[in-house]
Amino acid sequence: MTTRRDELIADWSIGGRDLYVALAAATDDLMRALFADAEARGPVRRKGSVALVAVGGYGRNALAPYSDIDVLLVYDGRPAGIDELAAALWYPLWDAGLQLGHAVRSLNDQLRRADEDLDTATALLSARPVAGDTELGYRVVIEGRARWQGNGRRWL
């Protein structure tokens, strides 16, 4: 499952920024495959939308070897089965020995936290959608950055 990532880490001819970007891209492919597989098994019965968003170094496309993979599974509406979808994403990564920083939140909860918590607010500055509902993913990013601009003076 993590073959491409492992190959990149073992390839000493790639280094620095090139390696970080390649690792992020390989991780994108992995996350998209896991998301598609989880959706195909149908754990989420949609009454809303779901997006997987990369944050932190992974969100910046600067994923160092053996770094944790920081992701946010965000939903809008009331999707039944969101916990099953999260488990279908997280467990294969843990089983592969990858470190994972993760959260499952509603859009409203994520944006409320971005108003109240500096770490959450700064995480959204480098966020980018990876899988699922792209429109929802960009909404998290755009609204998160707007909240940073509105609260920037207070945070600084």
> What is the element string, with H for helices and E for strands?
HHEHEHEHHEH
Question: What is the count of helical runs?
Answer: 7
**Any idea what the shape is?**
globular
In whole angstroms, the N-to-C terminal distance is: 41 Å
What order do the strands of the largest sheet run in, or round the barrel if closed?
A: 3-2-1-4
Radius of gyration: 16 Å
In this structure, how is the largest beta sheet organized? Answer: 4 strands, mixed
What structural category arises from helix and sheet content? alpha+beta
What amount of the residues lies in strands? Answer: 15-25%
Q: Give start-end ranges of low-pLDDT stretches.
A: none
Number of strands: 4
Helical proportion, percent range: 55-70%
Overall average residue pLDDT: 87
Protein described:
- The chain has a 4-stranded mixed sheet.
- The longest helix is centred in the first third of the chain and has 25 residues, at 16-40.
- Strand 2 (69-77), helix 4 and strand 3 (100-106) form a beta-alpha-beta unit.
- 57% of the residues lie in helices and 18% in strands.
- The mean pLDDT is 87.
- The chain has 156 residues and is an alpha+beta fold.
- It has helices at 3-10, 16-40, 56-59, 82-95, 107-116, 118-123, 134-155; strands at 48-54, 69-77, 100-106, 128-132.
- Helix 1 packs antiparallel against helix 2 and helix 2 (16-40) packs across helix 4.
